[in-house]
Hints:
The protein is mainly alpha-helical. It has helices at about 10-25, 25-40, 45-55, 75-85, 90-95.
Amino acid sequence: xxxxTWRVPDExxxxxxxxxxxxxxxxxxxxxxxxxAAVDPELAGDGVARTRERLARAGLLVAPGPPRRRPVADAxxxxxxxxxxxxxxxxxxxxxxx
Length: 98
């Protein structure tokens, strides 16, 4: 999961916090839903439609890219198994200090 830093004027940050609080959401969940509404045309509903309309008026609505496919379960399992097979970081640190 990615983490994003958002620089915003204090007044707008407070308005976002208040909007999230009013809906009983964390700021993270509120902003995630807002971003999803901006880029996912599959979402439907009055709240999402209003958000998409506002984003369109602000010139911020982005057309979705091609659909993404999930990797097959066998490939994920193989990647996980391979990822744990290297030299532990602690061993590398100790050997570099010798």
